[in-house]
Every structure is written in C-alpha cells, then in structure tokens.
Amino acid sequence: MDSVENSLRRRLIRDMLLSGAWASLAGSALIVPCANAMEALATQVAGGKSVFRVTGTVRVDGVPATQTTRVFAHSQIETGPASSIAFVVGGDAHLLGENSRVQLEGEGFVESTLRLLTGKLLSIFGPRPSGQSLNLVTTTATVGIRGTGVFAQSGEEVSYICTCFGQVEIRSANQYQGAAQHEQVQSEHHDAPRYVLRDPDAGLLITPAKMKLHTDEEVELVQALLGGALPASFLRKKVS
Asked: What distance in Å separates the CA atoms of residue 147 and residue 134, rounded to the nearest whole number?
C-alpha cells in the first residue's frame, strides 16, 4: 500500500509541475505533504527532460522554450513579464522568475558558473566531486556554492541572496578601502539572508536582510525535480 501511495503522490507532483497547476496552489496545505512524502522524482522519471514547466514567454539560447527543450550547462535562459521556467541541468534544479536572464557556464550538463544578469532565481545544487567549484554570480556578488539551496535576486545596485539551506561564501564584486568583503553563511532554514550592495553603506557592502520573494513550497517543488528529500533541519524549522 505504501508503494502505491508514494507512486500516486509522485505522479501528482509531476503532473502539477508539468501542467503549471501548482502555481495556483502555492501556499496551500495540499502541496506540502505531497512534496514532503515524495522520495524520488529524479530527472530519469521524466526520461531525461530538462524543462518541467514553462509559463509565458521564455527563451533558451534565443529559441522559444517548450517542455521538450534541452538546457545545457552553457545555455542562456531569459524570461519575459509574467513568465517563468522550472528546469534541470544535470544534478541541479532551477526556477527562474519573470523578467530574468541567466547565463550558464560549464560543460555538457555540469554547471560551473551561473551568471544571473537580472531577475530572480531559485536553485538547488547537487553535490560536486571533490575540488570542483561552483559559483553563482550576480551584478554585485559572487556566491560560492557548497551543495546548497539558494534564492538570488540580481539588480543594478543591490543583490539579494538567501541561503535557504546549506553553506555558501558570499563575496562582494566591488571593494571598500581596497578590499572585497566576504562572509561565510551556514543556514538551516533561510537563516541569514543578505543584501550585497554596489556602493558601501556605513562601510558595509554585505548587510542583513529578511527572507522574502520566495516560499518554502517553491523550495520543495524545486527539490522535487531532483528527487530525494530536503535536509531534516529545513523541514523541522519549517514545521515549527
């Protein structure tokens, strides 16, 4: 009975992702138990798909995106107003929001750098081989990823970085008194959001922020694209 129930839950979440119906239910009590119970919605379940949901106007490498589009580690993805795309590249899953543009860098399906040129991106990154680096770059910051869930918003004067769970190193792109500022962040559940400024405020380029612009349900659904479970500490804090 458990295997049948889990199979039905996996199918429900997958169908919601592919149809876009989950967007109308964000924050409801329906999504959360389904997403928590699902143990395996790996990329292979959908036959190696890259794109799981497209809403509005989205281009991948300059071509309008569909659910059959392949996204590679060197692709550029761009969304228009009221548009978004949920996609997987190798062991990483992403949700790119409206009016956003991200340039991926890497080889095949292994990302090494994501350049969020503008807009909003929620990502969950799988583990990397020892010694392999991975960076998320915004207009004002470089974020060193250590197997992490991260939400970022990239603007001309300030970036917003929320480490949803895991560990990152945030480094300012600009300098103050001849040096870039940096901070190690360890988070279990959106514990230490940060603004990274273009120009210093009272000598600081990295300042505290509040969790905003994304939800736990979105984190769970992005994790669902990869299969497996979110860290127990994330779920424990979410429930409390």
From this structure: 9
> CB of 113 within 8 A of CB of 145?
no
**Cα 81–74–221 angle (5° rounding)?**
55
Hey, what are 79's tokens?
């969304």
Q: Measured between alpha carbons, how far is 100 from 171 in angstroms, rounded to an integer?
A: 22
- Provide the strand spans (E) within 65-211: 76-79, 84-89, 92-96, 101-107, 110-125, 135-137, 141-145, 149-154, 158-176, 179-187, 194-201, 204-208
CA–CA gap between residue 68 and residue 109 (Å, rounded)? 16
Global pTM value: 0.82
DSSP string, 187-225: ESSS---EEEEEEEETTEEEEE----S--HHHHHHHHHH
> Which of 128-132, 146-150, 163-167 reaches the highest mean pLDDT?
163-167
Q: For the purposes of burial, counting CB atoms within 10 Å of the CB of 53, is it exposed (0-12), middle (13-18) or buried (19 or more)? A: buried
**What is the Cβ-side half-sphere exposure of residue 103, based on CA atoms within 13 angstroms?**
7
Q: Cβ distance 86 to 225 under 8 Å?
A: yes
pLDDT per residue as tens digits for the range 121-139: 999 998 877 778 899 999 9
Compute the mean pLDDT over every residue in the chain, rounded to the nearest whole number: 84
